[in-house]
Amino acid sequence: MIPEQPVYLEDKVDEIRQSGRLAYRSTALPTWCPGCGYYSMTEGLVNALTELRIKTEDTVIVSGIGCASRFPFFMDTYGFHTLHGRALPVATGVKVANDKLTVVAVGGDGDGFAIGGGHIPHAARRNVNITYLLFDNGIYGLTKGQVSPTSATGFITPTSPFQNRDAPLNPLLMLLSYGASWVGQAYAGWPHHLTQLIRQALEHPGFSYLHVLSPCVTFDKTDRTYQNLDLAVRELDADHDSSDMAAAMRAAADTSTPMLGLYYAEMRETLGQALDLIAARAAGAQRIKRATTRHRQRKAPA
Amino acid sequence: MAKQTDIQISICGSAGDGTIAVGDIFKRAMARAGYRVIAFDHYPAEIRGFGKCISRTRISTNQVYSMKSYSDVLVSLNDLHAIPHVGEVRDYGAIIYDSAPMSAVAEGAHISGHLMPGHLPYALPIRELSELATGANRSRNIVALGFIAGLYQLPQQAFHQAIAAKFETKAPAVADTALAAFDSGFKSGSSTYKFDDVQIDHSRARKNGGEVRMMTGNGAIAHGCLEAGIETFFGYPITPATGIMERLAVEMPRRGGRLVQTEDEIAAISATIGAGYAGARAATATSGPGLALMAEMLGLGVMAEVPAVVFVSQRGGPSTGMPTKTEQSDLNLAVWGGHGDARRIVLAPTNVEGCRRCAARAFEMAEKFQVPVIVLIDLYLSNRYETVFLQGEDNFLPKNWQRVGSSSPGDNYRRYELTADGLSPRCVPGEAGGIHTATGLEHDEYGHPNDNPDVHSLMSKKRHEKLHDAMKYPGINFTKRFGDKGKIDVGLLAWGSTFGEALEAVLLAREEGIRCAAMKVVMMSPLPTRPILRFCNDCQQVLVPELNYTGQFANLVAGELGRPVVRVSHATGAPMDINYLLTAIRNAAKKKLRSKTTTSNPAKA
Amino acid sequence: MPSSTHHVVLGNGIAGNHAADVIRKRDPNSRITIISAGALLFYNRYDLPDVFRGRHQWVDYLVHPPEYYESQNITLRRKTRVVELDPQTQTLSLAHRETLHYDKLLIATGGHAYIPARLLDDVGLMHSFHNFRVAMQVQNAVRKNGTVIMLGGDVMGLDLARTIIATGHRVIVALDNRTFWPHEIAQSERARYLQALESMGLDIWDHGKVDHIEAGNSKGPARQVFFEDGSEIRGDVVMPFFGLVPTVDFLATSGIDMERGILVSPQLQTARDNIWAAGDVCQIWSATSNAYRFYYGYRNVKMMGEVAAYNMTGEQSAFESTVDEALEVTSKGLLHSPFWEYD
Amino acid sequence: MGNERVRKDYLSEDEDLSQLQYFGERVVTTVRFSTDPRDIGWVRENVPCQAACPADTNIPGYIRTIVEGRYGRSYELNRIANILPGVLGRICSRPCEPVCRHGWPGNGEPVSICHLKRSAASLKAESHRISEDLYTPTGRRIAIVGGGPAGIAAAHDLSILGHNVTIYEREARAGGMLRYGIPEFRLPREVLDIEVQNATRMGVTLQTGVTVGCNEGDIPLSKLLDRFDAVLLATGCMAAMPLPLRDQLDGRDLVQEMPNAEYGLNFLLDLHRGEKKTVGRRVAVVGAGFTSLDCARVARRLGAERVTIHIRTSENYIPVMDEEILEAKREGIPIRGLRTPVALQVDDNGLGTGICFVQNRLGGWRAGGRREAIPIPDSEFVEPFDTLLVAIGQRSINDYLDLPVELDRWGSVRVGEDGMTSVQGLFATGDFVNGSSTVIEAIGHGRATAGKLDSWLMQRVRQRKVVRIEPVDKPVRERQFDFIERQSVPTATVVDRFKGLTTEVEQGLDTDHSLEEAKRCYLCYLKYEIDVDNCIYCRACIEVAPRDCIKLVEGVEINDDGTYGELQETNVWRDTAAIWIDNDECIRCGACYKVCPTRCISISKNEIITQSV
Which pLDDT band, with edges at 50, 70 and 90, does B48 fall under? Predict the structure, then answer.
């Protein structure tokens, strides 16, 4: 679109250069399929990090396996490309090791909800202060288009040639019930909105889960395409109360018209705080214990 | 008498009798008294109820590394459980039991009917004494303990302190009760005429017993972790490794360390690798089944060159196998487990002291060689107690990784730079200029994915050859020979907990005049083949005793040395049977004699 | 014949052990259990005086090594006291509340030292000598060249006295009407026998009955014995030797005929089926003297055990003592009792 | 015909999503005007046809309106530029077509821009009314000498600007070369009449049959200069270039002396003035321009049996459209190349019998894509003829100037930046200044000079070029349009052509063919731009791009004149500040636009228009 004020591309380019956005990018060109929503996620993260002025060396991006796995390679931050389904526990390890780091786990629906499904509830309940960007395109892209836990019933893929008969998961409902302290949904087709949500997610102290809807432009030409998503998605109602779990769950339950925005957020003790508290308690306990020991030893010889 | 102290006391009871607890007090008291202790408890797989518990403690003037094949004293807190163990008491050894059980017992159900003629019975109204002293029969175990102390005139003070320490977290009344029970037992023990020939050489007890610590293998590992300044630990409960986590859960927070119980072993190793990547000294602990789950992530650690320490305490397998029985059947998994050429460092300490040292060094090695280090022990070593010197601490290195290689952070930094020794400059998140992405994909020096043939061969070479120096790493004897020097008839090549029994057997065999020696091998991967080969060449016959069916270590050695060895495999779930081993040595020695006579004559002619 | 018959022998003495030995020979497959109140394997009490000769290892007193019991498949239950016998159900109740069933029972619990009622208060101050442990205690209690006071002075005591004196100690015998028990001594003969005692080196103390005993003060001898006539003597130990009484207390409810001991036929059969008795515990019917009487001495006791064993395993042989029971004074003027002999 | 569907696509207000595969709604913001050199430079660089057009015709604009079926608007867009669309739609030399992006390597044939111009003119509604933005009268009086294309164009503009304009035309009617040089079978006179009429009817006084010159009866230029505020000379090049021949004495011109030889220009002028012209059986035409072709074709129509065109190089290198050459050949006119006339053979009674050529070989290149011709020694030969027509070029005549006007070394007047000659108030334009050129160049130059003249008169610039930027809410092309063949124009049969001199050869495109042809146009004035704010750098556009038209760039150079320079391409992710659609390569297929997941690609229409200031 043409803005009212004439904007010239090269002016914009200078602006971008000055913004420092590019510093977050690696030199290697992303190898995702052109049009892939991961680009949207990458830019969203890049912009959010830029806005928040988070240093590249203080950022760690952890990925598992799947199309997301290459994510870290396209960022000039610290990155760890791990194993299928293991992004969350590894990220937890990084965060526990160094609370000062901004840790972002990225993964797809297969990585997150199939092989890695066991880790999500625990990252959520521990409220480890990381951000989990889950990229849901309802398909296994890297292995060339098999059904995933979020594939629609009836979806036909090489591994479900006679239609997928499984019901898809409802990740948002899961995360809400897992006790994730920040749950939001974005859409790769709305990059600005996505950026803002990622920013909020990064700012949230605790486990923030951002569900990013995206097509697989290569292996799903029929079901979850940009066209269809464009028509399906809408923003959460303006009056949605993100502190109201019930409301969030109602919204999450409506899968026909996926709603974008912040579903639920609460402030809760993070894993880091918990561990600090434990450390404090332990220090205290030690003092008490010594006292009793002395008492005993006075008595013992009697 | 000049004879040095070397006695083994077994306390047998039912879960809930406080068998293990009282055994614990006993060994701690003896350690305080300055004796060397090794102890191995047997407790049931059942959570509660009437499972059998046996606490065996061997105390000696000089540290020994295996239990004796027999006990000198058996205390029965529960006859039904104790009766089958009467046979493990030697002739003229003592058996202490309750002469006044609370309820009538069926014919043959009382231990007094099962003593061997050589045993010396001490029928003691344990329950009554307990009730007399404490008003309740719950302190039978401690009465019995007191009785032993009294009977053998062990230092009462040491026991008082041990008991006080044991119950320091409980209400004071608890400790008072315990002390009263002990004293009554002690009194009757002292006044009992001593028929047995169990001898304790009090003169040789080190007076300054304080600097000696009593630890299990698990405890020693935890201790080593703490000495190494462990920062994060992630674990998932599994017998027999849980003790490590439980200990660290108490101690780490006090030192600002962070411990998280994860949802499974996969998460545990994942988080450990994550923390290692982030620069923390990180570890996890598990057993065979857990290690199997961790195999994939270990591959990542090797590929991404992330330091991490994994403590593995083996138990009876495969599958759930025998969770409370010991076995050395995860060696293959530890050394080779996982996909791809995933060379990692595997240390297998042979005693509790070794557990501590290996645990601490493991962090240093993981850091220096940028690779996961597995410290492989087994249930026997995990749970057995030994006295450990903390005097003259090895000074373990604080966390640091030297900047090797030419590329320095910021300046064309190459995380996986190919260097002479294969070690690359490591940076961790938070360090400007060190930004890189660690990956499980094959990668070039910068860490960029690259599956070009040259890159793969070069990087594979790097990942393997950087470990050569590990065999030279100071502070641990990766191999050590004991027994006869020079050419010998029989050599035992032993690893892990089994080495203790091997050494014991060798000592016994030497008393029989067999020329033999034992070599302990602490480093399983990479295998220090040179010293092992030298040893083997000194031996007419090399026996490899181990607690598994297939002879995993034997296979490893035979494979790497291309030299035949004799498997002495013993997969019963129990520690290596010294007599079984002794027989094997005798046979080997005989065979050797035969072969000598047949072969030597023509040689002479 | 493969027999699962359970032969239970009460008593780990000479009678019991010889019985067990014979039973095993005659019925190799039967179950044999010997029940002993003591802690040790079978040893020869006749050797116990040797504790004064420096023989302090109980192992040295054993008649059989441990392996013997294994080879003979004999179960020896030590530190086990029988508290009750029920002939109806053929069960024994043991002190630790275990019950034990028997098919054939031999009671050979022997006897224990008789203590005159008036001395019961001072039992704690007296030393007995009935087993290794107490023997050792006596040996420990007696100082070098110390003094042993024997009250009464039966043949066991006199036997011990010989050794004590031989090892350089002093023995004072406080005479009593049970001196020389179980030998019956005619008054006329008494002086001659006392003479013999003195010539053996014993000190005779003839001041009538003991009034009471006291522990001595820190220095000086550990014991003082006061007599009714006010006289007193001092020594390291005071040992009662008033003869034996059968150990039968646990038979109170068993309905077995007893006088002082268990009354048995010449076949050593008690009044109850499947129960025999042998040794110092039993009184055997003597047709010649028309009375139930005791037979003492190693050979008698051994014989009883064997006879009982035969009869328990199907024989019907009778006991006949072959021992001349007379106490004699040797040509050297020394005493000699046939009950001192054993092999 | 796909015609209906396409119309529907582009005309219906409610878009049919299923057919137009693009997503979401555009926020159409207001049109804006820009004088930013980057915008102007962009149009100049990215609309090659318009850049090539001397009259600065908004070619994409008028072609798109044809696609939209708005022929009238299309005609107007043309007229704004060249005032004689119908005429130029037939005889324009089409400098635009060779540069047409569609003709670039790999893109196929250029769009037949010219024929579409004609379609606009001929297909516009009967009721079409032309519109003019009239300025208020200034009272200034301007005399224009010469009623040719340049003069007429200038007159039109000056009159619109509110001046009183008088054209002094020597001939009986206005039109100059259009009327007297170009044969009717190429340019029907009624078309010419209407458009000249349209151009001059807003208060332009036509003084025909009046010669400005020094002979008696003529109006001296000096006098005009007194009577008018300004005088504009637009007398073109009305004299034929003499044929240089060997051993030809000074002053003599064999061509003029010979009864059966003539200069082609004069031949045509006479013909169109109404003279009865005849030619022999064999006609030799020397020369390689429109004139020579016209002469040859006229000669055929006049009954000549063998007409041959002799040229110095070869037909590949002559400044004539291929169609013309093709038509000439169809009419049986061979073109003989690589020969230069060196002499004429004359018989006793002075008739030329043959022309003597020297054989050439091709040499190096000359400016304007012409080739050198290098004579081969001793290679002369003779072509016999009955009639010789020489058309090797034209020149201006300035013997009528009674003022000391500065001339250049070719003898034409020298004009300054402001279009004025060395004489105050005396301006000159068209071929008279530039030497023989094309109609469209004359018109363009005439109008340009008119603008300068106006500025001089009013002492200020009253008009300027601005870029009009209008958002376009969807791509108006589809990729398949790129595969439409260039539509060929139907022509009259040779038999019919020879029935007379007036039968128009090219019939022009009918509605359907016009539409098809129009669809071919890339509409280069559409600017495809990526909004980097919205761009996620996913490169989906690059994936679907039909050519290397979308690039990862660090930035773009800006030339000294403020226009865009080279794109600084990169393939380093961190340096990729933007994904940039290189409009130079862009063929406006809309593929990128349709595939963009975030709809960050915008389309705008960038047209240069004249704005009054």
Answer: low
In this prediction, residue B566 carries a pLDDT of 94
Contacts of C59 in chain B (CB under 8 A): 92
pLDDT at D478: 83
- Helical residues (DSSP H) of B391-494, grouped into ranges: 453-465
> Which domains, from first to last, does chain C contain?
6-110+247-312 (3.50.50.60), 114-243 (3.50.50.60)
**Would you place residue B201 in the very low, low, confident or very high pLDDT band (cuts 50, 70, 90)?**
confident
Superfamily grouping for domain A9-268:
Thiamin diphosphate (ThDP)-binding fold, Pyr/PP domains (3.40.50.970)
What are the residue ranges spanned by the domains of chain B?
Answer: 6-212, 214-387, 402-475, 479-603
Pick the CATH number of B6-212 from 3.40.920.10, 2.70.70.10, 3.30.565.10, 3.40.350.10: 3.40.920.10
**Cβ(A75)–Cβ(A55) below 8 Å:** no
D428/D434 Cα distance (integer angstroms): 10
pLDDT for D202: 85
- Name residue B284's amino acid: T
Range of the domain at D482: 3-131+474-520
How far apart CA B272 and CA B300 sit, in angstroms, is: 12
Cβ proximity of A30 and A122 under 8 Å = no
The verdict on D431 and D502 lying in the same domain is no
Topology match between the domains B6-212 and B214-387: no
Phi, psi dihedral angles at D414 (to 5 degrees)? -95, 130
Note whether A271 and A95 are within 8 A (CB). yes
pLDDT over 60 at C154, yes or no: yes
Structure tokens belonging to residue A92: 């937890």
Round to whole Å and give the CA distance between D235 and B105.
144
Closest approach of D582 to chain A, Cα-based (Å): 12
Domain spanning B479-603 has what CATH number?
A: 3.40.50.920
Q: Which of B478, B474, B297 is nearest to B372 (CA)?
A: B297
B297/A301 Cβ within 8 A: no
Task: Check CB contact of D209 with chain A, cutoff 8 Å.
Answer: no
Architecture of domain B214-387: 3-Layer(aba) Sandwich (3.40)
Which chain A residue is nearest to residue D558, measuring alpha carbons? A10
Range list of β-strands (E), D445-549? 463-472, 526-530
Indicate if ipTM > 0.85: no
Q: Helix, strand or coil for residue D429?
A: coil
Taking the C-alpha atoms of residue B477 and residue B500, their distance in angstroms, rounded to an integer, is: 15
Which pLDDT band, with edges at 50, 70 and 90, does C3 fall under? low
Q: Does D22 fall in a domain?
A: yes
pLDDT score of A291: 44
Interface of A with D (CB under 8 A): 1-4, 6, 8-10, 12-14, 16-17, 22-23, 25-30, 32-37, 39-40, 42-44, 74, 76, 188-192, 215, 217, 226-227, 230
Confidence of residue D19 (pLDDT cuts 50, 70, 90): very low
In a domain, D573, yes or no: no
DSSP state of A188: T
User: What is the count of structural domains for chain D?
Assistant: 3
Name the nearest CA neighbour of B348 among B381, B371, B320, B388. Answer: B381
User: Cα–Cα distance between D156 and D442 in angstroms, integer?
Assistant: 14
pLDDT band at B8 (very low <50, low <70, confident <90, very high): very high
What is the amino acid identity at position A70? R
Q: Name the residue among B600, B590, B476, B483 with its Cα closest to residue B541.
A: B590
Residue D122 has pLDDT above 80, yes or no: yes
Q: For the segment A171-185, what is each residue's pLDDT rounded down to a tens digit?
A: 999 999 999 999 999
pLDDT score, position B394: 63
- The residue assigned the tokens 């515990």 is C281
**Nearest CA-CA distance, residue C97 and chain B, Å:** 5
